[in-house]
Amino acid sequence: MLDSETLSLRDQGLPIIAIIGRPNVGKSTLFNRLIRKRRAITDAMPGVTRDPIPEKWLLGNHPVLLVDSGGVKLDQEGLDFLVTKKSLGLLQIADAIVMLMDCTEITAEDEMLIKTLRPYTDKTIIAVNKVDDPVRDDLVWDYHKFGYPRVVGISSAHGLGIDVLEENLLEMLDMVEMEEAPEEVHRVNIAVLGKPNTGKSTLTNLFTGQDTSIVSEIPGTTRDVIMGEFSYKGTPYTVLDTAGIRRKSKVDEDVEYYSVNRAIKTIDDADVILLMIDVTTGLVEQDKKIAQLIVRRGKGVVLVFNKTDLLSGVGNELEAIKDRARFLFPILSFAPIVSISAKEGLDVDKLLDCVWSVWRQLNKRIETAQLNNYLREWSDAYQPPRGTRGHFKVYYGTQVSAPPVRFLFFVNRKKDFPQGYIQYLKNCIRRDLGFTQIPVEVELKERRRNTPNTRL
Fold first, then answer.
1. Distances, alpha carbon 420 to alpha carbons 251, 384, 395, 417, in Å
2. Considering only Cβ atoms within 10 Å of each terminal Cβ, which end of the chain, N or C, has fewer?
3. Residue 309 DSSP symbol
4. How many domains does the chain contain in total?
5. Is 444 exposed, middle or buried (0-12, 13-18, 19+ CB in 10 A)?
6. What is the CATH number of the domain that holds 412?
7. Is the pTM here over 0.85, yes or no?
Protein backbone atom coordinates (compact mmCIF):
# COMPACT_ATOMS: atom_id res chain seq x y z
CA MET A 1 0.00 0.00 0.00
CA LEU A 2 1.35 3.40 -0.95
CA ASP A 3 1.80 5.97 1.82
CA SER A 4 0.10 9.36 1.62
CA GLU A 5 3.30 11.31 0.89
CA THR A 6 4.15 9.10 -2.07
CA LEU A 7 0.60 9.36 -3.38
CA SER A 8 0.81 13.14 -3.09
CA LEU A 9 3.58 13.11 -5.70
CA ARG A 10 1.18 11.52 -8.18
CA ASP A 11 -1.52 14.02 -7.22
CA GLN A 12 0.54 16.82 -8.78
CA GLY A 13 -0.43 15.46 -12.19
CA LEU A 14 3.09 15.49 -13.66
CA PRO A 15 5.19 12.64 -15.05
CA ILE A 16 7.52 11.41 -12.29
CA ILE A 17 11.22 10.71 -12.87
CA ALA A 18 12.99 9.02 -9.95
CA ILE A 19 16.78 9.01 -9.44
CA ILE A 20 17.87 5.82 -7.65
CA GLY A 21 21.31 4.67 -6.55
CA ARG A 22 23.63 3.86 -3.68
CA PRO A 23 25.42 6.60 -1.70
CA ASN A 24 28.25 8.59 -3.29
CA VAL A 25 27.46 7.86 -6.93
CA GLY A 26 26.48 11.49 -7.58
CA LYS A 27 22.68 11.47 -7.27
CA SER A 28 22.43 14.90 -5.69
CA THR A 29 24.92 16.30 -8.20
CA LEU A 30 22.83 14.91 -11.07
CA PHE A 31 19.63 16.18 -9.45
CA ASN A 32 21.06 19.70 -9.12
CA ARG A 33 22.51 19.54 -12.63
CA LEU A 34 19.13 18.67 -14.17
CA ILE A 35 17.10 21.26 -12.28
CA ARG A 36 19.90 23.77 -13.01
CA LYS A 37 20.20 25.08 -9.49
CA ARG A 38 21.71 24.08 -6.19
CA ARG A 39 19.37 22.61 -3.64
CA ALA A 40 20.51 21.47 -0.19
CA ILE A 41 20.13 17.68 -0.17
CA THR A 42 22.19 16.39 2.72
CA ASP A 43 22.33 13.53 5.18
CA ALA A 44 23.97 13.45 8.58
CA MET A 45 25.29 9.98 7.75
CA PRO A 46 26.00 8.46 4.31
CA GLY A 47 23.55 5.74 3.34
CA VAL A 48 20.82 6.67 5.81
CA THR A 49 17.35 6.45 4.25
CA ARG A 50 15.74 9.81 3.49
CA ASP A 51 12.38 10.97 2.34
CA PRO A 52 12.20 11.49 -1.43
CA ILE A 53 12.92 15.09 -2.45
CA PRO A 54 10.82 16.30 -5.42
CA GLU A 55 11.41 19.29 -7.68
CA LYS A 56 9.51 20.51 -10.73
CA TRP A 57 11.71 20.47 -13.83
CA LEU A 58 11.34 21.25 -17.53
CA LEU A 59 12.41 18.27 -19.65
CA GLY A 60 12.54 19.45 -23.26
CA ASN A 61 10.21 22.23 -22.05
CA HIS A 62 7.74 19.63 -20.72
CA PRO A 63 7.00 20.04 -16.99
CA VAL A 64 7.87 16.89 -15.02
CA LEU A 65 8.53 16.04 -11.37
CA LEU A 66 12.12 14.99 -10.67
CA VAL A 67 12.61 13.04 -7.42
CA ASP A 68 15.88 12.34 -5.62
CA SER A 69 15.06 9.15 -3.72
CA GLY A 70 18.08 8.97 -1.40
CA GLY A 71 20.90 6.48 -1.02
CA VAL A 72 20.82 2.70 -1.06
CA LYS A 73 22.58 0.93 1.80
CA LEU A 74 23.14 -2.74 2.52
CA ASP A 75 22.65 -4.01 6.05
CA GLN A 76 22.80 -7.53 7.42
CA GLU A 77 19.33 -8.33 6.14
CA GLY A 78 19.72 -6.86 2.66
CA LEU A 79 18.75 -3.56 1.11
CA ASP A 80 17.71 -1.40 4.05
CA PHE A 81 16.58 1.35 1.63
CA LEU A 82 14.17 -0.79 -0.35
CA VAL A 83 12.23 -2.24 2.57
CA THR A 84 10.65 1.15 3.23
CA LYS A 85 7.19 1.75 1.86
CA LYS A 86 8.13 5.14 0.48
CA SER A 87 10.97 3.82 -1.61
CA LEU A 88 9.09 0.84 -2.98
CA GLY A 89 6.10 3.05 -3.62
CA LEU A 90 8.23 5.55 -5.54
CA LEU A 91 9.41 2.82 -7.92
CA GLN A 92 5.79 1.83 -8.51
CA ILE A 93 4.47 5.28 -9.32
CA ALA A 94 7.49 6.58 -11.27
CA ASP A 95 7.04 6.99 -15.01
CA ALA A 96 10.81 6.77 -15.52
CA ILE A 97 13.66 5.59 -13.29
CA VAL A 98 17.28 6.70 -13.59
CA MET A 99 19.48 4.08 -11.94
CA LEU A 100 22.77 5.87 -11.25
CA MET A 101 25.96 3.83 -11.04
CA ASP A 102 29.68 4.61 -10.74
CA CYS A 103 31.81 3.66 -13.75
CA THR A 104 34.76 2.78 -11.50
CA GLU A 105 33.08 -0.07 -9.61
CA ILE A 106 30.00 -2.27 -9.32
CA THR A 107 29.16 -3.02 -5.69
CA ALA A 108 26.84 -5.45 -3.89
CA GLU A 109 24.36 -2.59 -3.42
CA ASP A 110 24.37 -2.04 -7.18
CA GLU A 111 23.79 -5.74 -7.90
CA MET A 112 20.86 -6.03 -5.49
CA LEU A 113 19.27 -2.83 -6.70
CA ILE A 114 19.57 -3.98 -10.31
CA LYS A 115 17.64 -7.14 -9.36
CA THR A 116 15.02 -5.14 -7.48
CA LEU A 117 14.46 -2.91 -10.51
CA ARG A 118 14.04 -5.86 -12.88
CA PRO A 119 10.20 -5.58 -12.97
CA TYR A 120 10.65 -1.97 -14.09
CA THR A 121 13.16 -2.65 -16.89
CA ASP A 122 11.05 -0.94 -19.56
CA LYS A 123 11.02 2.36 -17.68
CA THR A 124 14.59 2.27 -16.31
CA ILE A 125 17.71 3.95 -17.68
CA ILE A 126 21.11 2.86 -16.39
CA ALA A 127 23.15 6.07 -16.10
CA VAL A 128 26.84 5.31 -15.64
CA ASN A 129 28.33 8.30 -13.84
CA LYS A 130 31.83 9.82 -13.61
CA VAL A 131 32.60 9.16 -17.29
CA ASP A 132 34.64 12.36 -17.46
CA ASP A 133 37.54 11.06 -19.52
CA PRO A 134 37.59 9.48 -23.01
CA VAL A 135 39.45 6.51 -21.52
CA ARG A 136 36.40 5.75 -19.37
CA ASP A 137 34.02 5.61 -22.33
CA ASP A 138 34.79 1.93 -22.84
CA LEU A 139 33.78 1.14 -19.25
CA VAL A 140 30.16 1.95 -20.09
CA TRP A 141 29.92 -1.18 -22.24
CA ASP A 142 30.33 -3.36 -19.14
CA TYR A 143 26.95 -2.18 -17.87
CA HIS A 144 25.04 -3.60 -20.85
CA LYS A 145 25.52 -7.04 -19.30
CA PHE A 146 22.61 -6.37 -16.93
CA GLY A 147 20.17 -6.58 -19.84
CA TYR A 148 18.65 -3.11 -19.59
CA PRO A 149 17.99 -1.64 -23.06
CA ARG A 150 18.96 1.92 -22.12
CA VAL A 151 22.50 2.56 -20.85
CA VAL A 152 24.15 5.99 -21.07
CA GLY A 153 27.49 7.34 -19.87
CA ILE A 154 27.43 10.70 -18.10
CA SER A 155 29.43 12.99 -15.85
CA SER A 156 27.15 14.77 -13.38
CA ALA A 157 29.99 16.99 -12.20
CA HIS A 158 31.02 18.19 -15.67
CA GLY A 159 27.64 18.01 -17.43
CA LEU A 160 28.87 15.53 -20.04
CA GLY A 161 26.28 13.18 -21.57
CA ILE A 162 23.38 14.98 -19.87
CA ASP A 163 21.86 15.80 -23.26
CA VAL A 164 21.87 12.08 -24.17
CA LEU A 165 20.21 11.22 -20.86
CA GLU A 166 17.52 13.83 -21.47
CA GLU A 167 16.93 12.51 -25.00
CA ASN A 168 16.42 9.01 -23.59
CA LEU A 169 13.97 10.31 -21.00
CA LEU A 170 12.02 12.22 -23.65
CA GLU A 171 11.81 9.09 -25.79
CA MET A 172 10.86 6.88 -22.85
CA LEU A 173 8.08 9.25 -21.80
CA ASP A 174 6.96 9.60 -25.43
CA MET A 175 7.57 13.34 -25.40
CA VAL A 176 8.67 15.52 -28.27
CA GLU A 177 11.10 18.31 -27.39
CA MET A 178 9.20 21.56 -27.74
CA GLU A 179 10.85 24.59 -29.30
CA GLU A 180 9.14 26.96 -26.91
CA ALA A 181 8.45 26.65 -23.22
CA PRO A 182 4.86 26.50 -21.95
CA GLU A 183 3.08 29.59 -20.78
CA GLU A 184 4.47 29.33 -17.24
CA VAL A 185 7.52 31.57 -16.88
CA HIS A 186 10.51 31.12 -14.62
CA ARG A 187 10.66 32.92 -11.30
CA VAL A 188 13.64 35.21 -10.77
CA ASN A 189 15.09 35.12 -7.25
CA ILE A 190 16.78 38.32 -6.05
CA ALA A 191 18.82 38.80 -2.87
CA VAL A 192 19.48 42.27 -1.49
CA LEU A 193 22.82 42.40 0.35
CA GLY A 194 24.97 45.15 1.78
CA LYS A 195 26.09 46.81 4.96
CA PRO A 196 23.49 48.40 7.28
CA ASN A 197 21.63 51.55 6.30
CA THR A 198 22.25 51.29 2.57
CA GLY A 199 18.51 51.22 1.80
CA LYS A 200 17.93 47.48 1.43
CA SER A 201 14.56 47.38 3.18
CA THR A 202 13.41 50.56 1.45
CA LEU A 203 14.15 48.98 -1.92
CA THR A 204 12.47 45.70 -0.93
CA ASN A 205 9.33 47.53 0.16
CA LEU A 206 9.39 49.48 -3.10
CA PHE A 207 9.51 46.20 -5.05
CA THR A 208 6.65 44.60 -3.12
CA GLY A 209 4.59 47.74 -2.61
CA GLN A 210 4.14 47.19 1.11
CA ASP A 211 5.99 47.73 4.37
CA THR A 212 6.04 44.06 5.26
CA SER A 213 5.61 41.24 2.80
CA ILE A 214 5.72 37.49 3.21
CA VAL A 215 7.93 37.15 6.28
CA SER A 216 9.78 33.98 7.17
CA GLU A 217 12.59 33.13 9.56
CA ILE A 218 15.05 30.94 7.69
CA PRO A 219 16.32 28.17 10.03
CA GLY A 220 19.94 28.43 11.09
CA THR A 221 20.15 32.23 11.16
CA THR A 222 20.14 34.63 14.09
CA ARG A 223 18.08 37.33 12.37
CA ASP A 224 15.07 37.38 10.10
CA VAL A 225 15.30 37.23 6.34
CA ILE A 226 12.35 38.99 4.76
CA MET A 227 10.98 37.30 1.65
CA GLY A 228 8.64 39.19 -0.64
CA GLU A 229 7.03 38.41 -3.98
CA PHE A 230 6.10 40.73 -6.82
CA SER A 231 5.69 40.78 -10.59
CA TYR A 232 7.36 43.01 -13.17
CA LYS A 233 6.53 42.98 -16.89
CA GLY A 234 4.81 39.62 -16.50
CA THR A 235 7.72 37.90 -14.75
CA PRO A 236 7.33 36.73 -11.12
CA TYR A 237 10.11 37.73 -8.73
CA THR A 238 11.09 36.72 -5.21
CA VAL A 239 13.21 39.16 -3.20
CA LEU A 240 15.21 38.28 -0.07
CA ASP A 241 16.17 41.17 2.19
CA THR A 242 18.80 40.31 4.82
CA ALA A 243 19.84 42.24 7.89
CA GLY A 244 22.86 44.44 7.28
CA ILE A 245 26.26 42.81 6.98
CA ARG A 246 28.57 44.53 9.43
CA ARG A 247 32.29 44.66 9.81
CA LYS A 248 33.66 42.46 12.55
CA SER A 249 34.81 45.42 14.62
CA LYS A 250 31.20 46.49 15.08
CA VAL A 251 29.78 43.20 16.32
CA ASP A 252 30.93 40.34 18.45
CA GLU A 253 32.45 37.23 16.90
CA ASP A 254 29.37 35.00 17.12
CA VAL A 255 27.08 37.50 15.42
CA GLU A 256 29.69 38.01 12.69
CA TYR A 257 29.84 34.24 12.14
CA TYR A 258 26.09 33.98 11.64
CA SER A 259 26.05 37.13 9.54
CA VAL A 260 28.47 35.61 7.04
CA ASN A 261 26.62 32.29 7.08
CA ARG A 262 23.34 34.07 6.43
CA ALA A 263 24.92 35.88 3.49
CA ILE A 264 26.18 32.58 2.05
CA LYS A 265 22.76 30.96 2.48
CA THR A 266 21.02 33.91 0.84
CA ILE A 267 23.47 33.96 -2.06
CA ASP A 268 22.89 30.25 -2.63
CA ASP A 269 19.12 30.77 -2.73
CA ALA A 270 19.27 33.67 -5.21
CA ASP A 271 19.85 33.99 -8.95
CA VAL A 272 20.86 37.65 -8.96
CA ILE A 273 22.31 39.58 -6.02
CA LEU A 274 21.78 43.31 -5.61
CA LEU A 275 24.83 44.60 -3.74
CA MET A 276 23.58 47.81 -2.17
CA ILE A 277 26.08 50.64 -1.80
CA ASP A 278 25.45 53.98 -0.14
CA VAL A 279 26.70 56.39 -2.79
CA THR A 280 27.76 58.83 -0.07
CA THR A 281 30.20 56.32 1.49
CA GLY A 282 31.08 54.01 -1.41
CA LEU A 283 32.25 50.38 -1.34
CA VAL A 284 33.86 48.99 1.79
CA GLU A 285 36.07 45.97 2.48
CA GLN A 286 33.10 43.85 3.57
CA ASP A 287 31.52 44.44 0.15
CA LYS A 288 34.61 42.88 -1.42
CA LYS A 289 34.20 39.74 0.70
CA ILE A 290 30.58 39.40 -0.33
CA ALA A 291 31.56 40.00 -3.97
CA GLN A 292 34.09 37.16 -3.77
CA LEU A 293 31.37 34.82 -2.47
CA ILE A 294 29.04 35.84 -5.29
CA VAL A 295 31.65 35.32 -8.02
CA ARG A 296 32.82 32.03 -6.54
CA ARG A 297 29.28 30.69 -6.73
CA GLY A 298 28.73 31.95 -10.27
CA LYS A 299 25.79 34.19 -9.38
CA GLY A 300 24.74 37.35 -11.13
CA VAL A 301 25.37 40.63 -9.34
CA VAL A 302 24.29 44.21 -9.89
CA LEU A 303 26.03 47.04 -8.05
CA VAL A 304 23.24 49.30 -6.84
CA PHE A 305 24.44 52.80 -5.99
CA ASN A 306 21.64 54.10 -3.78
CA LYS A 307 20.83 57.56 -2.36
CA THR A 308 21.75 59.46 -5.52
CA ASP A 309 19.31 62.12 -4.32
CA LEU A 310 21.90 63.06 -1.67
CA LEU A 311 24.66 63.87 -4.16
CA SER A 312 25.56 67.49 -4.71
CA GLY A 313 25.17 67.24 -8.47
CA VAL A 314 28.49 68.98 -9.02
CA GLY A 315 30.36 67.91 -12.15
CA ASN A 316 30.77 64.19 -12.77
CA GLU A 317 30.54 63.22 -9.11
CA LEU A 318 28.58 60.01 -9.74
CA GLU A 319 30.82 58.88 -12.60
CA ALA A 320 33.89 59.43 -10.42
CA ILE A 321 32.36 57.22 -7.71
CA LYS A 322 31.66 54.48 -10.27
CA ASP A 323 35.20 54.69 -11.68
CA ARG A 324 36.65 54.37 -8.20
CA ALA A 325 34.53 51.28 -7.54
CA ARG A 326 35.77 49.66 -10.77
CA PHE A 327 39.38 50.45 -9.84
CA LEU A 328 39.18 49.17 -6.25
CA PHE A 329 37.10 46.06 -7.05
CA PRO A 330 38.37 44.50 -10.29
CA ILE A 331 36.70 41.20 -9.34
CA LEU A 332 33.41 42.94 -10.21
CA SER A 333 34.58 44.38 -13.52
CA PHE A 334 31.78 42.52 -15.34
CA ALA A 335 28.99 43.64 -12.99
CA PRO A 336 26.58 46.31 -14.26
CA ILE A 337 26.14 49.42 -12.13
CA VAL A 338 22.73 51.00 -11.67
CA SER A 339 22.24 54.26 -9.77
CA ILE A 340 18.92 54.72 -7.97
CA SER A 341 17.17 56.51 -5.18
CA ALA A 342 15.04 53.93 -3.38
CA LYS A 343 13.59 56.63 -1.15
CA GLU A 344 12.38 58.65 -4.14
CA GLY A 345 11.66 55.62 -6.34
CA LEU A 346 14.02 56.86 -9.06
CA ASP A 347 15.27 54.42 -11.74
CA VAL A 348 13.94 51.30 -9.99
CA ASP A 349 12.43 50.13 -13.30
CA LYS A 350 15.88 50.52 -14.86
CA LEU A 351 17.28 48.31 -12.09
CA LEU A 352 14.72 45.56 -12.70
CA ASP A 353 15.37 45.66 -16.44
CA CYS A 354 19.05 45.14 -15.63
CA VAL A 355 18.23 42.20 -13.31
CA TRP A 356 16.25 40.55 -16.13
CA SER A 357 19.15 41.02 -18.55
CA VAL A 358 21.59 39.45 -16.08
CA TRP A 359 19.21 36.54 -15.41
CA ARG A 360 18.90 35.80 -19.12
CA GLN A 361 22.68 35.65 -19.48
CA LEU A 362 22.94 33.33 -16.48
CA ASN A 363 20.58 30.89 -18.17
CA LYS A 364 22.03 31.17 -21.66
CA ARG A 365 23.48 28.06 -23.31
CA ILE A 366 25.85 27.84 -26.26
CA GLU A 367 25.84 24.85 -28.59
CA THR A 368 29.12 22.94 -28.62
CA ALA A 369 29.50 23.31 -32.39
CA GLN A 370 29.04 27.08 -32.18
CA LEU A 371 31.56 27.36 -29.35
CA ASN A 372 34.19 25.42 -31.26
CA ASN A 373 33.68 27.48 -34.40
CA TYR A 374 34.51 30.54 -32.32
CA LEU A 375 37.39 28.69 -30.65
CA ARG A 376 39.02 28.22 -34.07
CA GLU A 377 38.76 31.96 -34.68
CA TRP A 378 40.18 32.79 -31.25
CA SER A 379 43.07 30.36 -31.72
CA ASP A 380 43.84 31.71 -35.19
CA ALA A 381 43.91 35.26 -33.82
CA TYR A 382 46.09 34.36 -30.84
CA GLN A 383 47.77 30.98 -30.51
CA PRO A 384 48.51 29.61 -27.01
CA PRO A 385 52.12 30.43 -26.10
CA ARG A 386 54.99 27.99 -26.13
CA GLY A 387 56.14 26.25 -22.96
CA THR A 388 59.30 24.32 -22.09
CA ARG A 389 57.77 21.20 -23.65
CA GLY A 390 56.39 22.86 -26.77
CA HIS A 391 53.22 24.76 -27.59
CA PHE A 392 50.17 24.48 -25.41
CA LYS A 393 47.10 23.43 -27.38
CA VAL A 394 43.36 23.83 -26.88
CA TYR A 395 41.58 20.99 -28.67
CA TYR A 396 37.91 21.76 -28.14
CA GLY A 397 35.45 23.07 -25.56
CA THR A 398 31.91 22.69 -24.30
CA GLN A 399 29.59 24.57 -21.98
CA VAL A 400 28.92 22.27 -19.05
CA SER A 401 26.47 24.30 -16.98
CA ALA A 402 24.20 27.33 -16.78
CA PRO A 403 23.83 28.64 -14.16
CA PRO A 404 26.54 28.94 -13.08
CA VAL A 405 27.98 29.55 -16.54
CA ARG A 406 30.92 27.20 -16.84
CA PHE A 407 32.99 26.12 -19.86
CA LEU A 408 35.32 23.12 -20.05
CA PHE A 409 38.23 23.15 -22.52
CA PHE A 410 40.30 20.08 -23.34
CA VAL A 411 44.03 20.79 -23.65
CA ASN A 412 47.23 18.86 -24.29
CA ARG A 413 48.82 19.87 -20.96
CA LYS A 414 46.94 21.28 -17.98
CA LYS A 415 49.98 21.81 -15.77
CA ASP A 416 51.47 25.30 -16.11
CA PHE A 417 48.86 26.24 -18.73
CA PRO A 418 49.22 30.04 -19.07
CA GLN A 419 46.73 31.92 -16.92
CA GLY A 420 46.89 34.76 -19.40
CA TYR A 421 45.46 32.53 -22.12
CA ILE A 422 42.66 31.35 -19.83
CA GLN A 423 41.79 35.00 -19.27
CA TYR A 424 41.94 35.53 -23.04
CA LEU A 425 39.38 32.74 -23.51
CA LYS A 426 37.13 34.30 -20.85
CA ASN A 427 37.32 37.68 -22.56
CA CYS A 428 36.47 36.13 -25.93
CA ILE A 429 33.53 34.25 -24.44
CA ARG A 430 32.17 37.45 -22.94
CA ARG A 431 32.71 39.51 -26.10
CA ASP A 432 31.49 37.05 -28.74
CA LEU A 433 28.97 34.84 -26.93
CA GLY A 434 27.02 37.44 -24.96
CA PHE A 435 28.10 36.87 -21.35
CA THR A 436 29.14 40.46 -20.64
CA GLN A 437 27.31 40.95 -17.32
CA ILE A 438 27.95 37.74 -15.36
CA PRO A 439 30.85 35.70 -13.94
CA VAL A 440 32.20 33.11 -16.37
CA GLU A 441 34.20 30.11 -15.21
CA VAL A 442 36.69 28.33 -17.45
CA GLU A 443 38.09 24.93 -16.50
CA LEU A 444 40.74 22.85 -18.25
CA LYS A 445 40.95 19.11 -18.65
CA GLU A 446 43.95 17.29 -20.04
CA ARG A 447 43.37 14.97 -22.95
CA ARG A 448 45.86 12.34 -24.00
CA ARG A 449 47.68 12.82 -27.29
CA ASN A 450 46.62 9.45 -28.73
CA THR A 451 42.92 10.12 -28.25
CA PRO A 452 41.13 10.29 -31.65
CA ASN A 453 39.80 13.58 -33.02
CA THR A 454 41.86 15.75 -30.73
CA ARG A 455 42.38 18.69 -33.06
CA LEU A 456 39.74 21.16 -34.08
1. 40, 9, 17, 9
2. N
3. G
4. 3
5. buried
6. 3.30.300.20
7. no
CA dist., res. 215 & res. 272, Å (int): 20
Residue 456 lies in a domain: no
Provide the domain limits for residue 53.
4-172
Instruction: Measure the CA dihedral 63/69/71/74, to 10°.
Output: -140
179 falls within a domain: no
Q: Within the chain, which residues score under 50 in pLDDT?
A: 1, 40-49, 76-79, 81-84, 179-183, 211-224, 244, 247-258, 450-456
Q: What is the pLDDT of residue 345?
A: 86
197 and 338, same domain (yes or no)? yes
- Both 213 and 276 in one domain: the answer is yes
Task: Please check whether residues 96 and 155 belong to one and the same domain.
Answer: yes
Handedness of CA 143, 149, 153, 155 (dihedral sign): negative
Task: Report residue 445 CA to chain centroid gap.
Answer: 20
Kindly state whether residue 379 falls inside one of the protein's structural domains: yes
Rounded to an integer, what distance in angstroms lies between the CA atom of residue 283 and that of residue 277? 6
| pLDDT number for residue 41 | 43
Closest among 443, 350, 356 to 404, alpha carbons compared: 443
pLDDT at res. 221: 32
Residues 350 and 441 in one domain: no
Domain boundary among 362, 384, 412: 362
Q: What is the pLDDT of residue 210?
A: 58
- Identity at 11, one-letter amino acid code: D
Q: Percent helix, strand and coil across the chain, each rounded to 5?
A: 40, 25, 40
